[in-house]
Amino acid sequence: MATAGRRAASRGRRLTPRSPSDGNRVAAMATRQSSAVIERVWSRLPEGARAVLESELSPTDLQSLLLSLARTRARRIGPAEALGRWKSDRFVRPATIDPGRLSDVENRLWRRLRNTPFVGLALSPVTVLGTCTSVGAVDQNRIVSTVRSSEVVSDPTNVLALEAARRRQSSVDPVHLASCQRVLRAQRFIEPTPRRISCSSRWCRVPGIGARVGRRQSC
Predict the structure, then answer these.
(1) Alpha carbon of residue 128 to chain centroid
(2) Residues 121, 181: Cα–Cα separation, whole Å
(3) pLDDT at residue 94, rounded to an integer
(4) Which of 82, 105, 171, 178 has the fewest C-beta atoms under 10 angstroms from its C-beta?
(5) Domain 99-218 in CATH 3.30.930.10
(6) Where in the chain is CATH 3.30.930.10?
(7) Burial status of residue 13 (CB atoms within 10 A of its CB: 0-12, 13-18, 19 or more)
C-alpha cells in the first residue's frame, strides 16, 4: 500500500498545474539582467563602435571579425580549462536519455510515416540566423547563435517551413515534410526535467504547406 500511495502522490504532482507567471517572472528578470550586461559592455567600447558592429559592417566582414576573435580566444584555452567548461556548461553536457531507446522511438515514428505523403529530411544542426525570430517570433536570446551568421536549430518546425516554402516556389503540389532533430535552446527552465532541458529531440511534421505549418511532438 505504501508503494501505491507513493505512485498516487507522484501522479498528483504530475497533474498539478504550473503557474505561467513563474516562467514569465524568470524571463523578465533574465531580460533585464541581459540588457544591463549588454549596456555595460557597450560602454567600454570606443564611441561609434556600436553603430559599426550593429549596422555598418557587412555580414561577411562581421563574420570574419567574430571568427578572428574566436580563434584568438580558443588559442588561450588549455585542457584543464576546457575540462572545467565541459563540466559546468549546460549546453555541452550529454543528454540523459538512453540513445538506444531514442533510436527505437525514432524508428517507430518513421515506420508510421511509410505509405504517407510525408518526405523525411535529415536537417542540418544549424540554420540561417533569424530563422526562429522571423518565422516563429521567438526572442534571439533563446537561440544559440553562431559566429557564422547561423544559429543552432531550436525548433525544426521553422526550418521545415523554410524548406517547404523553397520547394513551393518551383511547384504547385502540396509539400509534406517531416524530421526528427536534436535541438538546443538557450532559455533557462525553473526545474529542468527530461521535457524541459536545453538539449532534446523534436519530432515534427509540416503538412500540406499553404499557409498552415506544423505539428510538433517531443521524442
Answers:
(1) 13
(2) 9
(3) 86
(4) 171
(5) yes
(6) 99-218
(7) exposed
What pLDDT shows up at residue 16? 40
- Residue entry with cell 510525408: 118
Q: Per this entry, what is the length of the chain?
A: 219
Q: Which three cell numbers stand for residue 116?
A: 504517407
d(CA 204, CA 215) in angstroms, rounded, equals 6
Distance CA 127, CA 132 (A): 9
Q: Grid coordinates in use for 58?
A: 557587412
Q: What is the identity of the amino acid at 212?
A: R
CA proximity to 147, closest of 131, 126, 163, 123: 126
Mean pLDDT by 10 residues, the chain (219 residues): 39 40 49 77 91 93 95 97 93 88 92 91 94 88 92 93 92 89 79 53 65 40
C-alpha distances out from residue 16 to 10, 162, 195, Å: 10, 37, 16
Task: Burial-class residue 63 by CB neighbours within 10 Å (0-12, 13-18, 19+).
Answer: middle
Partnered with residue 216 across adjacent β-strands are 204
**Residue 36 has what pLDDT?**
85
